Amino acid sequence: MLKNLPAILFLLNLFSFFLYGFDKYRARNESWRISEKMLLTAAVFGIAGALLGSRLFRHKTRKPLFRILLPLIFLAETAIAIYLYLRFSGRI
């Protein structure tokens, strides 16, 4: 499982990135949209893709919920990753 983790994380971020792009495409064409709840859920599992997609497609950048939560999710996941690295490398 751990040896596949980088590939899994890459795919989750890629999915999140394309989800933000697809929703922006749908918004421009006045079509059915992906819910904000789904976009935020995708961000939890692929925050790098969500941040990149949000910036690149200029999607949900004005919404206060996204302006606050996306950076908070990034900081929380970074802190957890650092903690887990230090914990399992024997430095804590």
Structure description:
- The protein has 92 residues and is mainly alpha-helical.
- The protein has one domain.
- Helices cover 75% and strands 0% of the residues.
- The model has no long low-confidence stretch (mean pLDDT 94).
From the structure above, extract its key features:
92 residues, mainly alpha
Largest sheet: none
Computed structural class: mainly alpha
**Number of domain modules:** 1
Helix content: over 70%
Strand content: under 5%
Q: Let me know the average pLDDT.
A: 94
- Runs in which pLDDT lies below 50 for 5 or more consecutive residues are none
Q: What is the tally of beta strands?
A: 0
Give a short summary of the structure.
The chain has 92 residues and is mostly helical. Helix content is 75%, strand content 0%.
Question: What layout of secondary structure does this protein have?
Answer:
Blueprint: H1 5-28, H2 36-45, H3 47-56, H4 64-88
